[in-house]
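Task: sequence design from structure.
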């Protein structure tokens, strides 16, 4: 065993490399399972989950919608400050510790929310959980995925989106069921326990940084490599040539800034509607239980369409597909203004889910396909700062306008405009020139 340990060093977890490289199936699918578990657990601090708690918590404490929205926004701002640093750490050390920390600390913070007695305590706990949602979870999930899959990145990303949406379907229902049984405090306990049970152990035990760390290559196209076979290693290349941008090179491309512009415009819509959808439905006369199922409807549609977008991601220009997603986001905001019945609520949720499925699946593929795996964390860390600031602005904008006007009509009109503008920006997005043509 000592000899084996020298020849095949242990991975960051407890699995010997020589066992992984000799499995009868590609270990990337195990990693994808870990990613899906983390994606499901991530939704414990999603805006849609918090949306279920907005009405009972504001009723009990007398908080304004602006006040409770501010926690989600502040958490996003904090994540924006951290993600550039976290991205470089992801490139160096991989996703395992990042995801394990995110799951464990989010579970603890969410369970402690059941003890909330003041707005300050709520801010401290939910801001921390939301910071994990916007930073470590996103970087860890897509960093691991893009390291293990290149040619099959579309289908792997669509499976991940499916897991994310299953989590987004489940968490609001878990929260609403628990609230119905024993109040909102029990709801937070139920959500936090679910996060811990689903997300921690798979990533702690089974996550591996890169296929090259265990003598494999992405997508399982080549045979396993012997670590001592340096000549064979030099001959192995990815079946689909990848770009290898550094962060400095990526920042000098129009593609980086156009993708960032799309992100900046579309994510306020995603986060603003997600957080305030349930209270808007309830204020429109929808029963709270029905409102929770409407939230689950948009998650279900997102899951289905995410798989479809993943399958067609390389059969159509990704900018065109992103533009279609932006149009759906804008159209969903317009339809939500006139919600009066459960049927109209389900319709608007379906259009919203179609847009969300596209964004969650296509944007990670675009970033990885355009700029490669080598510096994905560093590049995505900068872009994610823009994304989480955009996400932070949406709930706050919606809450402020609702408190000012007395309803959500004006905020939904703003979100419609942002969605349509994002679609226009996406149409201008094209893949960058090869990095050797970028002047430093």
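Answer:
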């Amino acid at each position: 065993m000592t000899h084996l340990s020298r020849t095949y060093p242990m991975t960051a977890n407890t699995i010997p490399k020589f066992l992984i490289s000799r499995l009868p199936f590609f270990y990337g699918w195990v990693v994808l399972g870990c990613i899906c578990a983390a994606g499901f657990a991530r939704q414990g601090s999603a805006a849609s989950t918090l949306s279920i708690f907005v009405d009972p918590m504001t009723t009990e404490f007398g908080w304004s919608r602006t006040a409770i929205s501010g926690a989600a926004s502040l958490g996003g701002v904090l994540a924006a400050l951290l993600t550039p640093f976290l991205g470089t750490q992801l490139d160096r050390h991989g996703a395992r510790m990042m995801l394990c920390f995110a799951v464990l600390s989010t579970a603890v913070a969410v369970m402690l929310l059941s003890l909330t007695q003041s707005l300050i305590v709520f801010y401290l706990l939910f801001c921390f959980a939301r910071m994990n949602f916007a930073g470590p979870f996103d970087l860890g999930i897509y960093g691991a995925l893009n390291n293990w899959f290149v040619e099959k990145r579309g289908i792997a990303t669509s499976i991940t989106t499916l897991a994310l949406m299953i989590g987004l379907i489940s968490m609001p229902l878990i929260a609403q069921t628990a609230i119905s049984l024993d109040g909102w405090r029990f709801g937070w306990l139920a959500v936090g326990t679910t996060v811990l049970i689903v997300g921690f152990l798979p990533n702690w035990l089974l996550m591996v940084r890169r296929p090259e760390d265990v003598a494999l290559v992405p997508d399982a196209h080549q045979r396993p490599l012997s670590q001592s076979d340096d000549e064979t290693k030099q001959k192995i290349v990815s079946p689909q040539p990848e770009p290898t941008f550094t962060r400095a090179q990526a920042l000098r491309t129009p593609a980086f800034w156009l993708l960032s512009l799309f992100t900046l415009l579309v994510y306020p819509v995603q986060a603003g509607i997600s957080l305030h959808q349930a209270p808007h439905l309830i204020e429109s006369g929808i029963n709270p239980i029905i409102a929770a199922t409407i939230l689950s409807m948009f998650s279900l549609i997102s899951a289905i369409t995410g798989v479809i977008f993943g399958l067609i991601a390389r059969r159509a220009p990704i900018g065109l597909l992103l533009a279609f997603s932006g149009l759906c986001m804008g159209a969903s905001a317009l339809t939500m203004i006139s919600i009066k019945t459960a049927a109209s609520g389900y319709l608007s949720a379906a259009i919203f889910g179609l847009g969300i499925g596209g964004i969650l699946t296509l944007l990670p593929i675009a970033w990885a396909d355009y700029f490669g795996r080598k510096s994905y964390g560093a590049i995505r860390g900068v872009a994610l700062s823009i994304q989480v600031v955009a996400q932070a602005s949406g709930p706050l904008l919606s809450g402020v306008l609702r408190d000012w006007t007395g309803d959500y009509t004006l905020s939904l009109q703003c979100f419609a405009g942002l969605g349509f503008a994002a679609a226009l920006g996406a149409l201008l997005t094209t893949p960058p020139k090869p990095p050797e043509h970028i002047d430093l």
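The CA atoms of residues 75 and 130 lie 5 Å apart.
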